[in-house]
Amino acid sequence: MSTHAGQLAKTAPVTAVGRARPSLGSRIASGLGGTVVRVFLVLVGLFWLVPTIGLLLSSLRSSEDMSGSGWWKVFSAPSQLTVDNYQKLLENSDITNSLLNTVLITVPATLLVVVIGSLAGYAFAWMEFPGRDWWFLGVVGLLVVPVQVALIPIAELFGKIGVFGSVIGVVLFHVGYGLPFAVFLLRNFFAEIPRELLEAARLDGAGELRLFARVVMPLGGPAIASLGIFQFLWVWNDMLVALVFSDSGSQPITVALQTQVRQFGNNIDVLAPGAFISMVIPLAVFFAFQRQFVSGVMAGAVK
């Protein structure tokens, strides 16, 4: 009996401590911590969207209203909202043609970089050929070359082969300049694929192309999606390369808007909707593929 009572006496304090509830102060701090973080993140998101919202509301106001007050005036005078600016935008052939040129430049430049970069990344990761490591070091070295250094030599080259001032010339420059980063990114990602998985596929009779299409591409989907988003955003928002390599018939929306500002400084009723369309399309692409983008970033961080 005495032994049993001693054991109960020893275990009672432990049980009491184990069952002790958190103090009221700690519970309040924990609850406020989660609430504060959520409120802070919501405020940051709203603050990040303020320029987009402001540009949208400005594009829905007349030039007289925009010159007389700020875009926040619509909250007290919603009758200012109108779609006349977008009708004028559709009637402006320079803006509409430049928007089409932007699509014709961005889509091929993104697809070619993704396809060629994926094939080259796989080759550098898993195929044996003479000088593989030296070739890859050369690709990595191209990452440090500033885009400004290549403008004049490539412009002279494109002039000799007859593609300067065309959509093809702008696409070729974006592809050439985007490939080093694509190869570097995808090679490092593909190299982390288990070798046993690839050897098992080869034992089943899969060739290199089939192995790349059936095994490597599905596993590298997040990294490829991240690369595609980066390339799309960079090409769509680019103005320097397009300003050098395009002419009046092949200029994208960024150059067209800059030209409109230079020629007609007071045509804000056309510039505002054009700028909003130019900004909202990359945002839509990013939000549409944000899950793949986050998966690619997290996979790269884990690897």
Layout of secondary structure:
Elements: H1 2-18, H2 24-59, H3 63-68, H4 84-91, H5 93-126, H6 132-141, H7 147-161, H8 167-190, H9 195-203, H10 208-219, H11 221-237, H12 240-245, H13 253-263, H14 268-288, H15 290-302
Helix pairs in contact: 2-14, 4-14, 5-8, 5-11, 5-13, 8-11, 9-10, 11-14, 11-15, 13-14
What does this structure look like?
The protein has 303 residues and is mainly α. The protein contains 15 helices and no strands. It has helices at residues 2-18, 24-59, 63-68, 84-91, 93-126, 132-141, 147-161, 167-190, 195-203, 208-219, 221-237, 240-245, 253-263, 268-288, 290-302. α8 packs antiparallel against α11 (221-237) and α11 crosses α15 (290-302). The protein is flat and about 70 Å long. Residues 7-18 have low confidence and may be disordered.
Give a short synopsis of this structure.
The protein has 303 residues and is mainly alpha-helical. It has helices spanning 2-18, 24-59, 63-68, 84-91, 93-126, 132-141, 147-161, 167-190, 195-203, 208-219, 221-237, 240-245, 253-263, 268-288, 290-302. The longest helix has 36 residues, at 24-59.
